[in-house]
Amino acid sequence: MRAIYILPVAAILLVIALSSVFIVDERKQALVLQFGQVTQVKEDPGLGFKVPFIQEVVLYEDRILGLPTTPIEVTMLDDRRLVVDAFARWRITNLVQFREATGTGAEAQALRRLEGIVNPAIQEVLGSVPSNRVLSEDRTALMNQIRDIARRQASNLGIEIIDVRLTRTDLPEQNLEATFARMRAEREREAADEIARGGEAAQRVRAAADRTQVELTSDAKRQADVVRGEADAERSRILAEAYGRDAEFFGFIRSLSAYETALKGDNSSIVMQPDSEFFSYLRGAGVDGVETARTTFGDPAAEPAAPPAAP
After folding, report:
1. Which domain holds residue 8?
2. DSSP class of 303
3. Is 127 helix (H, G, I), strand (E, B) or coil?
4. Contact in structure between 293 and 281 (CB atoms under 8 Å)
5. Which tens digit of pLDDT belongs to each residue from 228-243?
6. pTM of full prediction above 0.85
């Protein structure tokens, strides 16, 4: 009979014992609450004890957490507007203050409260400096100022702001479009200038090439005329020299050339009187025939004949 009662009692005691023990790992820290009031703070990892069924354990992050802020528009000291967002790193340093400030909302409520602290700090710091300083690469001092302002205000929440970094500093959308349009217009103007300068250079090159062509062509024609004149003079000299050596033979060859020229072409027939002067050289003999051929065909030295045809 005793065994029947011992087992339920042991089970109940075991449940009570397990309910009175809780474990906190190294990534967490815990508060023990009794009717909503904090009775114990457990910040170190390990086992903890509480009153079962009366007290409850609420766990919080002990790690460094992040806060990405929503983009906001900030008016700089030079009246330029920039869209800015930031990323803050924070951690819980005082669990009791954090619980009182956030209630049951815990980290989610803390993120909303922190964004309401960080964004005004960004506007306060960046609104006091010109835009070129915000857009420069060295803006560590500005981010440190934002961090210090946010850290002082977040200390009442039991939170420490470890760092704040500006992740984006851009122009607003409408300003971006206007800036891009201005940049495009500037590039198009530069391109038009380059095209105009290129066209002008091309015209100069073409004009120089045309001038060089005319000069070379004129010089080539002049040299050709000189060579042609010298060749004609040499031909006339050779013909005159040949005529001077044997006038009768030269006249005979000249007549044969005339006959060949007259009988060229598709029509190889010629009709004339037998006593025509065209055949006077063949009817004559000796020097008289040469003189007749000279009268008929002209002076061989003054009017060269075509070369004789092949037999």
Report:
1. 2-61
2. S
3. coil
4. yes
5. 998 988 888 887 777 7
6. no
